[in-house]
Amino acid sequence: MPDIIILWDSPLFFERMFEEYGISSIVAAPASLYSLHLPPAKLLVVPTGFTYPEHAAVSNALADQKIQKKIFDFVENGGVFLMFSPLKEVSTCRACKEPAVTSLERFGLEGEYVQTDILILRSSTLTGDTDSVYCDGYFQNISNSFSVIEKDDTGRAVHLEMSKGKGRIILSSIHEFLSKTYFSSLLTGPKVKL
Fold first, then answer.
1. Per the domain annotation, does 192 fall within a domain?
2. Quick check: is 27 in a domain?
3. Which of 44, 92, 128, 161 has its CA 20 to 30 A from that of 31?
4. Per-residue pLDDT tens digits for 114-168
5. For residues 29 and 42, what is the distance between their CA atoms, to the nearest angstrom?
6. CA distance 174 to 119
């Protein structure tokens, strides 16, 4: 049974990284969150790229209220939801009554979308030995419900975390190839059924 479910619409290189880290993962389309056969997991991941037009099906599915409820219930019950690069809203869901789980507006946040390399000037469990990482911008107007986990060398927030129920929601503008140590730290809780 996997520790991680990657919410995506096709195989991707990201799962290879988990294999190299010795962490079990599967790729599942967001609509499969309805399946009774989807195994429990500790971490749900939405990779960088869900904002691109060729993956509109992913962002639109994540805008569905029933799928969002499944994700938030997963978190409330002890799961971790990690979303990479949520700085660009693309959902074309016209029937949605509230902002998508992929929208910063949903969390009362704002962001600046800028694709750039950033420096992290100290040792970080997030990035391991790498001090320069690629990111998609910065979070702004951060509410008290979020903690800033990582900033770039100029003090701009690039990685946030919020506790919700027994679990956590993590938003990161850093591209997803983070350290094994960091991903392992997200897998300390129980596996949660979706």
1. no
2. yes
3. 161
4. 777 776 655 567 766 566 777 888 888 888 889 998 888 888 888 899 999 999 9
5. 17
6. 11
- Tell me the per-residue pLDDT of 12-59, one tens digit each, with 9 for 90 and over: 777 888 999 999 999 998 889 888 899 999 999 988 666 665 666 777
> Residue written as tokens 């992913």?
58
When divided into structural domains, the chain yields a total of 1
The DSSP result for 89-104, as a single string, is -----SS-SS--TT-G
Contact 173, 111 (CB under 8 A): yes
For 29, residues 6+ apart whose C-beta sits below 8 A from its C-beta are 7, 8, 9, 57, 58, 61
Count CB-CB contacts under 10 A for residue 34: 12
Length, in residues, of the chain? 194
The helix (run of H) or strand (run of E) holding residue 4 is strand 4-7
Single pTM value for the model:
0.87
Q: Give residue 147's domain range.
A: 4-185
CATH at 173: 3.40.50.880
Is the model's pLDDT at 189 over the cut of 70?
A: yes
Q: Which of 111, 105, 102 is nearest to 159 (CA)?
A: 111
How many CA atoms, within 13 angstroms, populate the side-chain half-sphere of residue 121?
6
* Per-residue confidence band for 64, with pLDDT thresholds at 50, 70 and 90: confident
